[in-house]
Design brief:
single chain, four-stranded antiparallel sheet, alpha+beta
Length: 508
């Protein structure tokens, strides 16, 4: 019997469900919730990751991490009001939207922004079929008293002509997908994917102020060492877009196996590694194609990736547990799993390779841990208050910057082995060090009274002082910098596209 795969994994691997599968999912999920609620139980953590499919719906406990629950937690849960079965119905509606579109009803972006939109904005139901759109809208009502209960959902969704469970075609796809994945893991197979020749059109040429290129769903950015190519992971289309940095035009669009979450480039620029929801893909930059993949453990989520300068080993942040996975690209398999000491329910959220390749800095729950790449063991660990969501390292390797969606950035001095703090004129979401080693650029959201504006802050690495800030609309999330330090590439935090920000002033 095939083991259950989560709805999140299935959609990340194969895209949104077909309409008949959406309806069957809605029916079976409503039945599962009704059974829970009749027994006096409330799930409380219903997300696409908590919905198992093989061949009928099974509910799993789900994650309590904000990165997983943002967009699925009901407004009353977020504002501290009474919670109960109605909160599960809200999450049910959000899960239906995800199954139909591959995204939550309150858009992409940082968890903070998604939570804010959940409370204040109406859901985006574009792409949800007509027959399910009205139902999803009712379930996503801000007022819990206006939502249907699970029994009412079952009554509205039950169709005697359709047997319980997913349609046979959908069951076959899910079960076969699990068997194929298992076979690939067993044989260490490497696959080659066809190239997608569909190319989006850039919306602007390089000009004064941020250039905006319409490219929804950018989840990470990497720039080749020569600065000629920018690689953009697209979580909505399961692709990596190749941008010609000399013209700001799209050179290619490459499909990858699953939803991409992180990118890493080798020091010689010949390979770009893409970590996805279920694999690591290798892009051969000279051939301009995805040359192969390594299938990963499907029981965790990989939030970040780092590569040694020679490309001989990859380090993956295990986003659902306190381990770092080490991958040998040459062997096409995992070579080690490094356990980290942390509090209960800890997770690895970010990691960065030291410039000399001798260390990996790992940000996880309550700790900053330093790994020795020669032995793949823990070299040192330091207590840290919180969970850093993103990190950056200065070019000389002395300073490590840890961001946790706050108006401060923690700075770890590897020489003094002590933490300091930099206060910002905005909320830091991601950071990147300028290659010359003078500044670290921190992208995020401005503070009141300009709340909602985007901000790019420049911090002097030597003094730790903020020396400049640029504000713009709509804001920035993931960032990368050109090798000459003249441009910062930033993913629009609302998921609409790419910003190219001229920072020549700081490169002088």
């Amino acid at each position: 019997m095939a083991s259950a795969r989560s709805l999140r994994t299935v959609v990340a691997t194969r895209g949104p469900l077909a309409e008949d599968a959406q309806r069957a999912l809605a029916r079976d999920l409503a039945r599962a919730l009704a059974r829970w609620h009749r027994g006096g139980r409330v799930h409380g953590r219903l997300t696409p990751g908590a919905v198992g499919l093989a061949p009928t719906v099974a509910l799993t406990p789900g994650s309590d991490q904000i990165a997983d629950t943002a967009g699925y937690s009901a407004p009353e849960v977020l504002t501290g009001g009474d919670t109960g079965a109605a909160a599960d119905i809200f999450a049910f509606g959000a899960v239906l939207v995800f199954a139909a579109t591959g995204a939550g009803p309150f858009g992409p972006g940082s968890p903070l922004r998604v939570l804010q939109r959940t409370v204040e904005d109406e859901p985006d139901l574009r792409g949800v079929p007509d027959g399910l759109r009205e139902l999803a809208l009712e379930c996503l009502a801000k007022d819990p008293d206006r939502r249907p209960d699970a029994e009412q959902l079952v009554a509205r969704l039950t169709d005697p002509a359709v047997p319980p469970g997913l349609p046979a075609s959908a069951r076959y796809v899910l079960i076969a997908g699990g068997l194929v994945a298992a076979a690939l893991i067993a044989f260490g197979a490497v696959l080659v994917f066809d190239r997608d020749t569909t190319k989006p059109t850039p919306s602007a040429a390089l000009a004064e102020g941020p250039v905006r290129i319409a490219m929804p769903g950018v989840s990470d950015i990497a720039v080749t060492p020569d600065g000629r190519r920018v690689y953009l992971a697209n979580r909505l289309q399961n692709t990596v877009t190749v941008l010609d940095a000399t013209t700001n035009t799209v050179a290619d669009v490459l499909p990858v196996p699953g939803q991409p979450t992180g990118l890493a480039v080798t020091a010689d620029g010949t390979r770009v590694f893409v970590v996805t929801s279920n694999a690591v893909a290798t892009i051969d930059t000279r051939a301009g194609e995805v040359s192969g993949q390594i299938v990963l453990d499907a029981s965790t989520v990989y939030d970040d990736i780092a590569v040694t300068p020679d490309g001989s080993r990859l380090y993956l942040a295990d986003g659902s547990r306190s381990t770092v996975s080490v991958i040998d690209p040459g062997a096409g398999a995992a070579s080690a799993t490094i356990p980290l000491r942390t509090s209960a329910h800890g997770r690895v959220s970010a990691l960065q390779m030291a410039p000399d390749g001798r260390s990996v800095y790992v940000g996880h729950t309550d700790r900053l841990t330093i790994l020795d790449t020669a032995t793949d063991t823990v070299r040192a660990e330091f207590p840290y208050a919180g969970t850093p969501e993103r990190m950056a390292v200065s070019p000389d390797g002395r300073f490590v910057y840890l961001l946790r969606f706050a108006p401060t950035v923690s700075v770890f001095d590897t020489t003094a082995q002590a933490f300091g703090e930099v206060r910002l004129s905005g909320i830091g979401i991601d950071a990147v060090a300028e290659p010359a080693g003078r500044y670290v650029f921190i992208a995020g959201q401005s503070l009141p009274p300009d709340d909602g504006m985007g901000v790019l802050v420049a911090v002097d690495i030597a003094t730790g002082a903020e020396v400049g800030a640029l504000t713009f609309v709509p804001g920035a999330g993931r960032v990368a910098v050109a090798p000459d330090g003249r441009h910062v590439y930033a993913a629009d935090r609302n998921g609409a596209g790419l910003l190219i920000i001229d920072v020549t002033h700081f490169a002088r």
